Structures are given as C-alpha cells and as structure tokens.
Amino acid sequence: MTAAEQSDADLVSGALAGDRDAFSRIVSRYQVLICSLAYSRIGNLGMSEDIAQETFITAWKHLRLLREPDKLRAWLSGIVRNRIHKSLRQEGRQPVSQAESLEAVAESPSAAALPSQEAIGREEEAILWRSLAKIPEIYREPLILYYREHQSIEHVAVELDLTEDAVKQRLSRGRKILQEEVHAFVASTLERTAPTQAFSGAVLAALPLPATLSAAAGVKGATATKSGLFAAALGPFIGIFAGIAAQWMMFGGFNARERTRKRLELLISWTIAIAVAFGGPYMVRTSAIRFAWSDRTLFAAMAGFYWLFATIITTWIILVFRHIQSNIRIAEATGKSARVSTTATEPGARFAMIVGTNLMMFWAVISLAWTARDFLGLATSIALVLILIVRSWIMDEGKAQYSCGPAHIQQLAYSAAATFAVLNLRLDVWLAAGYGISLSEVSSKFPTWTVPALTLILIVWGCALMAITKPKSNA
C-alpha cells in the first residue's frame, strides 16, 4: 500500500507502534496545512515553521491521547492553534502581527538562513505579509492554503472542513481585498515558500527517541455536504434597462422638440445615477483596501453610501412630484392641458411602464436573493412585484392622461417601500451566504442594525420633505 493510500488511522497505528516512517508520512501529509495555519496568524515564516515543528513534536509525544485516529487532521489543527495562542500571549502581541517596514528589514542584521528564507528574501517576506495582513483571517487562511495546495479548491475544503462553495466565496472575497499589483506576487511567493520534504526531515530529526506506544482506536468515515451558489451578474443592468425603457416611453406623446429634450435629460440623469451607483461602492472598497478597514467598518461605510444615494434619489423624486402637482394645478386653474404624459390611455405602453418601473426598483433585491439562493426572499420579492403591477394597473385604469405623472411617482414610492422591507428582513441571510458564514455569526461580524436605523431616518426625511413641500390650499 502506498503512502497516499494509507488512511490516517493506519499511519497513527504505525506511529503508535514506534514506526518513525509512519509519523514521517503524517508530517508530509499535513505540513502544508499546519504551516499555513501558523503563518496565517503569526505573519512570520520562520516563526510559523518553528511553531509547526513544535506542533508535530507535541503530537508525537502525545499521540496515545488521540482517541479517534480518523480525526487526526482536526487534532493537529487544534494543537497548532493552541501553540499559536500561547506564543502570541507570551510575546504580548496582537492576534495578527504587523509586518516590519522595508527600511527596518533592510537595516536588520542577517542571521542564519531558515528553510523558508532559502526561497524568499526578508524584504519579500515583509511585502508578502503587509499585503496579507489586510485580509481578515477568515479569508486569509483559505487563500494561503489554496496557493500552497497547488490551487486545489477541493484540498482546501477538506483541510478546513468547509464546502467547496464556501471556499470559493472566501477566496473570491480575499482576492478582492488584495490589491491587483500584489496579487501575482503573493501567489507565486506562497507557492515557493510551501514546506518541502526537508521540513519532514527536520521534524523527525528533532523527535525524541521512540518509546513503546499503545495501540489506538478504529476509524470513522465522514462526508461533506456541497451546495451551489448561482450568480446574477446581469441583475443590475436588467433593472437599469427596465427603468430607462419605462421612463423613455413616458415622453412618447410630446411633440418632437419636447420629446427630444426630455429624453436627453433622462439619459443625462441616468448616466449620473449609474456613475454614482457603481463608482461610489468602488471608491468605498478602494478606501477599505488602502486603510485596511475591518469587515464591520466596510459594511457600515457601504451602508452609509447607499443611504446617502437613496436619500438623494428620494429627495429628487419628491421634488419632481411636487413640480408635477404644481403644473397640474396651474393647468386646472387656467383650463389648459398639463402634458405630463400622453401614454396613459394606451394599454400596452401603460403596462410596459408599470412593469419597467417595478423591475427597476426590485431587480437589485431579486438578484441578491437569487445569488444567495434565498428562495423565500426571492419568492417574496416576485410576489410583491406582481401585486404592485396589478395594483398600479387597476388604479390607473380610466384615468385622464395628465394623471400618469403623479401615478408613476406614487408607484415608485410603493415599490421603494416594498424593496426596503425585503432588504431589512433578508439582509442577514444574504450576508451569511455571501461570506460563507452562519446566521449566528452575521450579527457579530457586521453592524446589521445600521440598515434598519438608516431606513427609519430615510422614511422620516421623506415624510418631512413631503410636509415641507406640500402646496398651500389657496395657492
């Protein structure tokens, strides 16, 4: 039987019988995992390899205490985490160390080369850790292990007891945090610094002379559940196209000059809105990378941006609504026609406008629910869209042409309210799916309370603005 075919239980049994070769195969099998876990917390290649060696030596001495040999990987991971904690506590360091500056590295005296330093210089190591230190540990561990396991998602999932989908999500998040210019450097350097057979030899050379070890227990199997995650990359663009198309048709009944002017204004407004909607989050993420924000800070900053964006849009919609109301009042007083829209009495155009408006408002939450495989949130969103479409169709039926403008604004208000309701109710589910964590971890990792608080502030602002801009009865 080859070394690869031997189970953990077989290797443990051989090691307990005093077979140093069996323990050597254990070291070879798990050296990448143990060294990677240590480096992810310590941030120093030499120290991480020292801790990993101590881990295997401790395992050799206490192997008889392992009651379930099939859980060898988890047992070794527990030992290395304890060694890391002890090392950090003794040195009074933070759980994640900061890399030395390049100037300090260059000026420090040289020492005997460690195994890792044969493949990487101290300046390279400093750059490597300064890049990795910006990534939260939940994403840093899979990223380090991924490149040291020859870019195998399957191996990383097995080593960390995660599903392959969770590994993909964490790798994706980790890569986004890394700056583009250092990503290739980090990947190649981690590959070069993976422990080799020389590490196994160093561990075996440090082992005490074998004593008679007792036999161990049997083997238990384990299986992992896999779950898929679908992306809805075109979601935002579908909502944007639907919104532009709906508003484009609203101006179909104006004369050629007015129609051209209003559609040009529409395109300019949407261009600005799209630039802000996509540019703002990009700037927030760039700032998060530059200043090494935590996930909590990034979440709060992103929530604050979207609240500001929603507040500006809400203010603009209310002011437009009041302007339309004013035009209608003037038209009624003078007996003229208020040309808000002449498509209201055309069933096909009116239906397309109603559907487009609701898709514009709802497609963001529909995309998030679909991506997170939140079928309850998805079904709720679709049901609300259908209800609002039917409501708008019934309420607008038979109305005069000029009433389409206020009705459209009212439709936007109802859609926005329903969208915010779904967002507040299902946000924790989407975060858990997006970050590959449990629902119980969401509240501890993210200040989710900020979303309902900002929603309440937005509602209060909208109501206050409606009251302030309400036209006087004698106007």
What is the element layout, followed by pairings?
Blueprint lengths: L7 H9 L3 H23 L2 H17 L10 H20 L10 H6 L14 H11 L4 H12 L4 H8 L3 H14 L2 H13 L4 H10 L28 H16 L5 H35 L4 H40 L12 H25 L3 H22 L7 H32 L3 H7 L4 H19 L7
Helix pairs in contact: 1-2, 2-3, 2-4, 2-7, 2-11, 3-4, 3-11, 6-10, 7-9, 8-9, 12-13, 12-15, 13-14, 14-19, 15-16, 15-17, 16-17, 17-18
Q: Termini, distance in Å?
A: 94 Å
How much strand?
under 5%
Query: Which structural class fits the helix and strand makeup?
Result: mainly alpha
Radius of gyration: 31 Å
Which word captures the global form? elongated
The whole-number mean of residue pLDDT values reads: 76
Gist of the model:
The protein is an all-alpha fold.
Structure description:
With 475 residues, the protein is mostly helical. 71% of the residues lie in helices and 0% in strands. Helix 15 runs parallel beside helix 17. The chain is elongated and about 105 Å long. About 11% of the residues have low confidence.
Key descriptive features of the protein:
single chain, mainly alpha, 0% strand
